[in-house]
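Reading a protein record of the kind used here takes little practice once its layout is understood. The reader may check this reading against the record printed directly beneath this paragraph.
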Amino acid sequence: MDKLMDNPWFIKILALLLAVLLYNSIPPHTGKEMTDVNVPSVQSSVTIKDFPVKVYYDTENLVVSGIPDSVDITLKGPTTHVQSANALRNFEVFVDLTNVKIGKQKVKLEVKDLSDKLKATLKPDTVTVTVQEKITKEFKVEAEFNKNQIEDGYSAGQPVVEPNKVKITGAKSDIDRITYVKATLEEKEKMKETVSKEATVQVLDKELNKLDVKVEPSTVKVTIPIKDNSKTVPISIVKKGTPPAGVTIESIDLDVKEATIIGPEDILKDTESVRVEVDVSKITGNTTLDLPVIISNGISKVTPQMVKATVVVSKVEEKTVSQIPLKIRGLSENYNAEINDPVNQMISLLVTGPSASINGLKPEDFSVYVDLSSLSEGDYDVNIRIEGPKNLNWKPDKAKAKITITNNNA
């Protein structure tokens, strides 16, 4: 190839071939006078999303709303021009409101500095704008802060704002919507002493949407007084577990009836008591226990942390309740069930509990049954279920029943 390129005849022949190809690409002359040379070009289009919109108006005395921040613009024309415009974006989409009147009106979006070889289509190409006169009004500023930033055991007093009033400038419709003018104090660390800092003023409507208005001054000084917090509440007794067989808990008394708790003010407000938990499953007789005072989430400290609980117990009695009928529940109407064991369809219970509860117990005080709701035809060993008075323990002479289920349609 290098040798061919060095040969002058090769270069001449190649140039001739290129000239012939170029000649054949030119359309034939039609006989009409030709004033321009037509060069074929490829047409294309591109859509530019979110192209910024500029607006021209009297910013000193007017407020304009309804102009979108951006529009979609589609460019059509020769590919080279489309690609160049898309890459450089050295044109402008704008709305001219220099001679606009106050009120609501429809205006057209325009394009300038775009090549005349390109056609631009805007979406939207017109918008409805509202033009209003600027007004200024004075508002009181309220302080706001995150109560979760208060150190545990402390609470915040009434915040102080300096200056406590600001001037707000904007469209009349926005000024009329103002519901909240707040200065929010943001702290990264927990607060346990009085804090004074500069805070930015925020202007919000009733739905907490930020309004596009000018605030003077834009920042104010916010002071939040911090104080420690405490509350005295009763100590509740919570029983855990079940007493051993033959033991009844008569009373549990604490040597201290109240405790002092420290924490955030909102947590203290909702805290009515603290508690001690007594595991009665391990108590077999009269005893005294040292128990920790349990606090809820959010409480940082409690005094005292330990209390003494005096537990008084009494023994329980036993009684056998016989001839309790065994019933069937949950059987489908398509089936019939027969209890094979116990044969007499009766069971007995050995009941234990306080003598006041044991005396006078009758078979009618208990409900004994088998649940057949999930069973179909066949023979089964089914658990016997028992319902009876509270605060009593019982043991049946049989734990299971033998059942035969038959199909009524067989």
Observations:
- The first helix runs from residue 2 to 6.
- Residues 32-37 have pLDDT under 50 and may be disordered.
